[in-house]
C-alpha cells in the first residue's frame, strides 16, 4: 500500500478523483492553504486537510503537486524540490520551466527517488490516436506543415504533443509574430524544414483566470496526401485527403468510369470519435488520464533515462520560446459566457459522428483481449516490471520455436503501437505483472461481448479462446495449431470461421452476387478458384450460377483433403473440375491455358504465398484480357490472426519478410496491383462501413488497358 498526499485543491481535486479509483494506494490527505474550496474538497473525499507537511503523521510515499510553478508565479516547483529532498516521490503538474525541471531531476537522482511531470493531455485517447496516425503517415510521407490553434493556458501540453509528433523540437527558428490588441495572436516558427503556425488566444480574464477560454487546442499536420487534424483534446481525429484534380481534359463526364483512386475517397475520414458529454470528460476522461501518470510514480517507479529527461527539458525550453514570441497575455475584463444549446442548430445530414455500433464496440473489446493475451505471454517469465528487456531476452524466456520468432517480434511491435508496452533504446518495458488467472477471466468474460455484438458463432469464439489459452504450447512447437482449427479432423470450426462472421458473410455474399452478374454477361464463363479450402466461398457462388451458362469452374487447393471434400459437396454439379494447385508455382497446365480464364477468385489465399507478386503474375498469365480477379485479403496486421492462424502460415520472401509483417498494408496492395498491371475496379467495404473494423478488403481487379482517350494506362 502506497501513501499519497495531494498538494493544491483547484486542480488537485482531479488528482483526488483519479486516486479514489485506484487500487493499492491510500490518500493520506490534502495539503493546501485552507481556503473554503480546500475544506469542501477534503470533506467530499473524506480525507484530512493539512496546511503543512509537518502536520502529517503518516508516512508519505508519493506527493502529487498540483500547484502553479514558478513559470506562473507559484511555488509548485519549490514544493516539489523540498519533497524530493525528503526522499518522497513527486509528480508535479505542468507547466514547468526547464530550469526548474533540471533542478528537480537532479535532486531526484541524488536522492534516488522518482520525479515526473503530470500532463494528462498526452494520455487522452484522442491525442494518442492522433500521434499514432501522424507516425503512420510519416513513415511514407514527409510532414509539409503544422497549424495549431490554442489557448495559451494549454500551450505547454501542445508543445509536449508536438514533441511526440516530431520527436525533437530543435532547432527552433522564430520566423515572425503578429501580436496586437486582438483575441488571437499569431507566431510562425520552423523546426528543421517544417513550418509551424501558432494562432493563440492570449487573453486572461482577471476575474476568471482559468475559465476564460475560447478553445483548448486544435492541431493539423499536413502531408502531400492530406491533412490529419486533432480537433480537440478529446477528439475527433479526422483525415482530409488532399484535393488533387485528375489529369483529364473532360473531368465531370469521365469520373464515373475513369476516376483515379484518389477520386473514389471520401472527403473526410473520422479516425477517432468520442461522443461523451462535457461533464463525462471532466468526471471520467481526465481522472483516467491523470491516473496513468500517477501509476508511473506509484507502481515500481524507475529512473527515467537521460534521453527522456533531455527530451522533456527540450520541450519545456521550446514552450518558453513560444511564449516569449507571443508575449504576455492581455488582461481583459467584462467577458461573459453564454450557453447555446446544440439542438437549436440546423442539422441537415447524418455523418460518421453519429455512428453507434455494437459491432464496432464488440470488436474493440475483442481486439483488446487479443492484445492482452500477447502481453501476458511476453511478461509471464519476467521478474521485474518497469525494467527494460530486449526482444532476444523475452524470446529466450518464453522458449519460442525458431519458426515463430518473427511472430513474437510482430507482437512486440503491435503492443508498442497500442501503448501496452513501451520501447526505449531497443528495450521493452512492462508496467504491471499479469497472471494466468487474469487471462482466463478475460476469455471467460469476453464470451458475453462476443454474443451481444454478434461477432460470430460460439465455435469461432472458442477457437480463438483455445488458441489464447494454449499459446505456450503452440509457441514452443508442442501443439500443432491446425488441430485447433480442425478438431479431430472435423470442419465445423473452420466452416463457421470462414462463413459465419459478419465480414465473411459480407464478402461471400458480395462475391457470389458479383460472379453471378459476370456469368450472366459472358457466354461459357470459365472460373478458377485458388485455395478453395473449406468451400465457404464456393458454396454460395455455385448456388447462384448452377443454372447459368458456365463452361468450367475449377475448384483448386494444395490439400488433397480439401479437394476431395469439395468433390463430395458438389458431386451433382456438371461444370466443376477439381485441381491440386500450389499458388507458389505456375498455374498453366493442360486444363488451364494462358489467357483462358474469365474470373479468378482468391479469398484469403495470397497471404499464404511466398511471394505475392509472383503469384499475381501467374494469375495474370491465365486471365483473359477482359477477365476479372476477385481477391479478399487483410490490409495490415490483425491481432486476432497474431494469436491464432499466424502460427499456421509459412514465412514469406517478399516485402512482408523485409518489414516482418504478416499482411500487406492497403497502400502496398495498390502499389503491387499497379506494378503487376492490374487496375482496381472495386475496393470494399468502403471506409464508412462498420465492417472496416475487420481490416479486410474485397478487391475486384481487371487488366490495365490502353486508354484510347488519354493514351495513358
TrEMBL record:
Alphabetized InterPro entries for the sequence: Gfo/Idh/MocA-like_OxRdtase_N, Methyltransf_12, NAD(P)-bd_dom_sf, Polyketide_Synthase, SAM-dependent_MTases_sf, Thiazolinyl_imide_reductase
- Limits of the Gfo/Idh/MocA-like oxidoreductase N-terminal domain: 3-118
The Gene Ontology terms for molecular function here are: methyltransferase activity; nucleotide binding
What's this protein's name? Bifunctional Gfo/Idh/MocA family oxidoreductase/class I SAM-dependent methyltransferase
Alphabetical UniProt keywords:
Methyltransferase, Transferase
Q: Which GO terms describe its biological process?
A: methylation
- Organism taxonomic ancestry: Bacteria, Bacillati, Bacillota, Clostridia, Peptostreptococcales
Domain (Methyltransferase type) spans 528-628
